[in-house]
Amino acid sequence: MRQLRNGVFSLNGREWSLLVACILAIIVFSVASPYYATSGNAGTVLRNSIELLLVGLGMMLLLAMGGIDVSVGVVMGLAAIGVGRALGAGVDPVLTAFVGPLTGALLGLLTAAVIVLGRVPAIVGTLGLLGVYRTAIFVLLGGQWLSGLPTGLTLLLGTTILGLPVAAWVIALAYLAVWIALRRTPFGLHLLAIGNSEEKARLSGIPVVKIRFATFIVSGALTGLAATFYVANYRNVEMTVGSTLALDAIAAVVLGGTSILGGRCSLVGTVLGVLLLRILQNGLLLTGVPSLWQPVVTGSLLIGVLGFEVLSNRLSLSRLGWASK
Amino acid sequence: MLKHIRKALAISALSLAVSTAAFAQDKPKVAFVPQLIGIPYFNAMEAGGNRAAKELGVDFIYSGPVDTNPVDQLQIVQNLIDQGVNAISVSVLDASSIAPVVEAAKAKGIKLFTSDSDAPDSGRAVYVAQATDEGLGNTIIDELVKRVGEDAKIGIVSGEATASNLNAWIGFMQKQAAAKYPKLKLLEPQYAGGTAERAAQISGDLMAANPDIKAIIAVASTTCPGVAQAIETAGKIGSVIGAGYCSPNTARSYLKSGAFGFTVLWDPAQLGYLTVWAGKQLIDGKAFEAENKVPGFDNPVTYDATKGILLLGPPAVFTAENVDKFDF
Amino acid sequence: MNRIRKLQGPALILALLALLWIIVILVLLVLKPSVFSLGTVTTILQFSTILALVALGQAIVILAGGAGIDLSVGGIVSLSAIAGMLAMKLGLPSFLLPPACIIAGAALGAFNGVLVTKLSILPLIATLGTFFVYSGLALALTGGAAQSGVPSWLLIWGRGVFSGIPVPFLTIAIPVFAIAGIVLMWTAWGRWIYAMGFNERSARLVGIPVDRARLILYSLSGVLSGAAALISLAWLGSGRPNIGQNLELESLTAAMLGGIAILGGRGGVGGVFAAVMLLVTLKTGLLQLNVNTVWQVGIVGALLVFVLLADRLSQNWR
């Protein structure tokens, strides 16, 4: 367990290689395009990462617990409708900011009720819920997008505190809170224990049901928080909101070194995974590669990084004389 | 399982005999299959279609796919054919894959025609066009040149890479630029799929990659909010203008903030009305004249017999000044 | 081994699906008797062919366990269709188009298999990666443009109907399901697959070549997707770079609905077939009743959750 928990903070092999990859990509793109290394572009990359950073954090917790949620995209959509409606109705922007996480948490509760109480596999259960939530989005919007929403929330979240935008503070706080929960509270130990083996966790007296509920709710709340930023950023809610978000989030988190089998997660890795994806997407477009190639790059990166790690592990093992199993 | 299937098939075969006799209809039925449901543009077409149905005495069916997936669209059309709807209009997602249902419709004597997006060589009865693809492509380029000059750099952000009508518009934009404004530089089109978020991301990247960019064209209506928002967020209002094919309601706040210079569109409700009217004409077996009087239309609707195109009229250009006069 | 086959789950699921299917048909019968004609049957079968093949591939991969799943099936369908058409443009004789699609599918599937067995990347992640790569490549190579030029003799096969049954369904889907059913039920191969899924450790201990078998199964899933791609070409008359869109989720839904246990080792192809039929009949029925299509995704999702819960409850009772 100690070894598992170490992975949460100090940089491990994967995190180092991601960091190096990020820096390498930045250097290559800076050479290739004169417009790459500008503060404006850095801002663009970071702004584009906001939603994925938050949703990815929730997804990381779920994966670490041996769960998964393929419906996060539509959950963000539903939460965005909540925020948009509140904003459109003239609710105070400070209050509307909380509508997102609240809606998300409620949906997380609903998801957990089906997955945990019904004891169905998370991947299939959330696939079913994905369909249900999608219909809910269609019915709630009824073909009328929420367009041209008031700027209150945008202005509120666009302000800077001590020179940093609100989004940066919120994301930093979210990561700090999760870090503390994982490091300083029994929640973290329990979560990783469930990820390692739910059966053993149950036998050793860990409140499995409670922890699993809590994780789904936290992930929902983080996804809802992303929805708040989405609405503030785009002032528009259309019915396709977040349609590619779930797969992107899983890719980024796994890239960051979190295992989908559970029991292992990495906060730094998640941040680096999201950033690497966004840096590559942005950089490729800046160097003139058509946007249609972006999924190809995402996929190759995923396969490449994981495959490389396996091969290099094997190589180092055999070099040490611990050859084949 | 097989036993169950066999039993059920037997039941259904039995019911067939009963049902064919019971099948009787009062009003003729006209259907419209959009590319995608749940977007304001097609909703407005639906509203226009409903109005026409009431006035012309037909039943109007509106049914479309939830994703821009041509197979789902085919399935919907096929089911309308099986239902025996008298006339079916389709806003075609992919011109090349509509052929099987055109054949099926012909076999059952059903009028299948296109509206909003065409499949020229498919054997469809007529194409109800909002404007010619050429007119749409040219208008946006001409209007942009008026605002940014002839030697500007312009980006294009489209929706699905596979949408044949959007690709046709882009083709005419490029043609017009090459023929009339040789100094104009149109960047390669980028595709955002159906989401505003991706459109914003791509537009932001385009502006970073081309600091001298003067305008971005949002081709699909789903990309308009994203493009406009990216221009606002990048603080480039005034130096970059957005333009596109989106409804006044979607673009209103962006037109007013200056992120969008103008949008080009027609009245989709009118197009919906015209679609149902054309379906009624086809069912009644009336031929289209070179100029047709359509109830509720100020100007006669022209028909191009060689191409089989019924034309709504020239597209309208919406700007910050006139946008408040429209609500769709 | 007998214990495995006597599990109640698949039989229960099958009965449940059959019941649901009959309910759907009865409801339709009452609400809209005009629906029932040979034409409707043809339509249903026509739109199930592609899903049925892909769902079968998905099912056997999951059945063999090891957290098996294939998220790339939709990408394989798109990319094999495009690869076939592009190869023809580059001078491949048109009579070689069918084998070209199948081989492309097999190769793409085998690549998944290599990632899973040789590199031991978890299937969910490996095929998520190839999902991005395959579906992205299909779009990027063509710029999104549909590829026309399918030979006309292929269209005759793809659009043909023989006594109400679409020819591709008759000549590919039915034989393939029959073979898969027979292999799984009555051959040593079938027992190996169940054994691998049921308990991989003991399967290895009794000498089943688990890795090789799994590699073959991923390739087979690719072959089935390649066949689906071929059918899409022959039916639509053009190669579409996004023809496989959403198939990964739909096939997963069909396999799960059909009673394949996500952890492997449990379920049969009969259930998958029934689930595909139920899904397409349900969709058709809702369309015939002119129910707004937005309800389709929700109803299918709710159905999936319902069947999972029913399966779980039945296990608790035993």
| Rg estimate of chain B, integer Å | 22 Å
What's the count of strands of chain B? Answer: 15
Helix content of chain C: over 70%
Tell me the CATH architecture of chain C: Orthogonal Bundle
Rg estimate of chain C, integer Å: 19 Å
Under CATH, the homologous superfamily of the largest domain in chain B reads Response regulator
Question: Which stretches of chain B are low in confidence, meaning pLDDT under 50 for 5 or more residues running?
Answer: 8-24
Give the DSSP E fraction of chain B (strand runs of 2 or more residues).
15-25%
Please mark out the parts of chain C with pLDDT under 50 across 5 or more consecutive residues, or reply none.
1-7
What fraction of the residues of chain C are assigned to beta strands by DSSP?
under 5%
Known CATH architecture of the largest domain in chain B: 3-Layer(aba) Sandwich
Figure out the total of helices of chain B.
10
Shape label of chain C? globular
* Annotation, overall tally of beta strands of chain C: 2
The class by helix and strand makeup of chain C works out as mainly alpha
Transmembrane segments (chain C): 12-31, 43-64, 71-90, 96-115, 122-145, 165-194, 215-236, 256-282, 289-310
Protein name (chain C): ABC transporter permease
Main location (chain C): membrane
InterPro entries (chain C): ABC_transp_permease (IPR001851)
Task: Briefly summarize what is shown.
Chain A: The complex is composed of two ATP-binding proteins (LsrA), two transmembrane proteins (LsrC and LsrD) and a solute-binding protein (LsrB). Chain A has 325 residues and is mostly helical. Chain A has helices at residues 2-9, 13-32, 39-64, 72-88, 93-117, 122-141, 152-158, 166-184, 186-196, 198-203, 208-234, 245-255, 267-286, 294-319, and strands at residues 160-161, 164-165.
